[in-house]
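Researcher: Batch entry, complex prediction.
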Amino acid sequence: MTKKTSGNVTIVDVAREAGVSYTTVSRVLNNKENVKPETRERVLTAMTRLGYVVDQRARSLAGGHSQVIGLLVHDLGTSYIGLIIRGIEAELAPAQYDLLLYTTHRRKTKESVYVATLTRGLADGLLIVLPRNPGAYLETLRVSNFPYVLIDHRGVSEEISAVTAANWQGGYTATEYLIKLGHRRIGHITGSMDQGCARDRLEGYKAALADHGIPFDPELVQEGDFFQPAGYNGTRALLNLPDPPTAIFAANDVMAFGAMEAIRECNLRIPEDVSVMGFDDIPEASRVHPPLTTIQQPLEEMGRLATRMLLERLRDPAIGPRRVELPTRLIVRQSCQPPGRGNAQAGG
Amino acid sequence: MTKKTSGNVTIVDVAREAGVSYTTVSRVLNNKENVKPETRERVLTAMTRLGYVVDQRARSLAGGHSQVIGLLVHDLGTSYIGLIIRGIEAELAPAQYDLLLYTTHRRKTKESVYVATLTRGLADGLLIVLPRNPGAYLETLRVSNFPYVLIDHRGVSEEISAVTAANWQGGYTATEYLIKLGHRRIGHITGSMDQGCARDRLEGYKAALADHGIPFDPELVQEGDFFQPAGYNGTRALLNLPDPPTAIFAANDVMAFGAMEAIRECNLRIPEDVSVMGFDDIPEASRVHPPLTTIQQPLEEMGRLATRMLLERLRDPAIGPRRVELPTRLIVRQSCQPPGRGNAQAGG
DNA sequence: CTGGTGTGTGCAAACGTTCACAAAACTCTT
DNA sequence: AAGAGTTTTGTGAACGTTTGCACACACCAG
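Model: Structure tokens for the complex:
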């Protein structure tokens, strides 16, 4: 038993134990070449004998990298974010990185504050999920050349690495599916219009209408914010229209749940009276009644890919920005059907 | 404009700019007494002029505390954990702490590895949510006198700070409610039996049965693990019994969703044919069809309280362990009704 | 004018690493 | 068997902060 049983074991202690200099211990620690296998072995056993654990603070202060990635999200507790984080962690763990979590809970100012501290050594890189007002700090980040990747947001310029889903395509596919079922009046509840993904989905919706010769009716579009009440309120407004839609396409599943709530409260049936289409395919989508037809976003894969891109950039800072759009696909369940059949059934 | 436009601004730069020594800057930074108000002012303006941000790594290396709290959870993406984290962050943010996130994804070995690195300076304290096999490292933590608080788990000894919900009481209340509706055969799908909360809920269930003179039938208890498939499988098994239950009490909402799935697949109705009771009251519970009657756990409050306890302990290490149990309460929705009414309705 | 008691400030040494550079120890050549 | 080249190891100075100690100065009582 060595003298230092309590307190912290440092590389100096390990060096003494192994009979080498602390530099050699550091080399072993960092898997540097040019260490005689026998010496390495001796250091390694000394480490385990002493129960040595590297001090990340010191390492990062001296060496410049902290093995920590910052994650900026606006909220947790949704499977949307859960799936993304699952992907992130899956890539981070084998690379020995830790995850520092910042949630902004929609308080816009907080994001820029976090970014400042993060870039001061606490983290080596940053993953930003669906920022609310990226303009405020993305430029700061870019100028300071701090590595980061955006998830589900295209950012303010082409110079920014980003992983997104094919939102336009998803919006198009969803709308086209409803059109092909026979719907002509299709309501849309948008996401936060300050976010590109929401705008893209709306554009996809418009494009599908246009391609099938259906005139765009602004009355049928309600601005939402990706939260359930917006889906509910938007749907109530749509159903109160003189000529209400026979189908509602919500810009995400959560708002689609709100839509379902509203439709039921109006004593209408899903999908007999009104069809509902979501976006995301979060796990709950298959659990609600009726199971929600929706557009699947590869959330976990988005997290994985963004992380891979970030780590790649960390290894080689020369790598330029990369922008990847992952495909979305239609998941047909039971919340959509051709219009008018509800009445027919009820009447027959 | 000063010379150092790029790179990092240190206290030395600030000191030069303000015409004081770096020690004084450090004093201002830490709000130490004995700094002339005028000097303090001068340092402060120098800081903002230079855009100084403190380097947490250096601060923590020199000073001993990192202003980071580690959070150990086994999975994200459920509102269960989302609510807890919301509570944690609400308390952490004003105290200027950051959150380092570790998810174990049910891989038991990882937890102990994390604990080792965490205690080496990366974090000042640890919050552990519902650990899988705490025995492995809780003892290590206790011995090294590292501050931590358990959430939703009572730990291995009375010496451990923990915040839990009244699980026994919740199990009792849920079961008693079903009994009072008239159910006599009540199935129970347990959580992971290696966790105290799961055992407590089961014990509450048994106690309620006993208090109402209903003999305990082991056939009616299916072991689960808090995940949806377990709810599904357990329910299928229960419904295949020669004398199946008329109500099912799942140890959490997510398994209750699985139960609902299974019941529907057997062409039975909820609650007419089988009543379903959950536990947790996650937001989805009110959204499923029919809305789930469940036992509410004050998850956000549990996160808040645990964090307050941890910060308190950080301020005064002499504080001993505290164990708090927050109350649970029954939320009546529409997934439970008296037994036998389903047939009556169908026949009438 | 001296000696005390504060206050405000500065110096130097930590904290535990990494890294550039230098030195030492090998391995080949010839 | 010596010199060149290569591998291995060690020394010293960072990294940016906190903190113990010492010092300068003002103030007051004697």
